[in-house]
Amino acid sequence: MAKYILALDQGTTSSRAILFDKKGAIAGVSQKEFTQYFPKAGWVEHDPMEIWSSQLEVAQDVLKKNGVSAKDIAAIGITNQRETTVVWD
Predict the structure, then answer these.
(1) Are 17 and 61 in contact (CB under 8 A)?
(2) Residue 60 in domain
(3) pTM to 2 decimals?
(4) CATH for 64
(5) Which of 20, 23, 53, 78 has its C-alpha lying 20 to 30 A from 88's C-alpha?
(6) Long-range contacts of 49-55 (CB under 8 A, 24+ apart)
(7) In this structure, are strands 14-21 and 26-33 parallel, antiparallel, or unpaired?
(8) pLDDT tens-digit profile of 24-82?
């Protein structure tokens, strides 16, 4: 039976994975900063492949650090930056 919920949070400066147990308590956290690009004043851009790779890395890391298998995950929640668009093919 799945025991955890994994939250993936994509912020402006870092990617985070937060593992919650079935009582809603935080069981583990992993975070990784990534590169920001400033093409114009007040603008910030990110490399979508770096977003993907950093999210994958923090998800794998939080599971490994807590001895949790992917089959122990009941659900995944995803949050991201507001007013953001990324298109992958």
Answers:
(1) yes
(2) yes
(3) 0.86
(4) 3.30.420.40
(5) 20
(6) 51/10, 51/15, 51/86, 52/88, 54/14, 54/15, 55/8, 55/10, 55/15, 55/17
(7) antiparallel
(8) 999 999 999 999 999 999 888 889 899 999 999 999 999 999 999 999 999 999 988 77
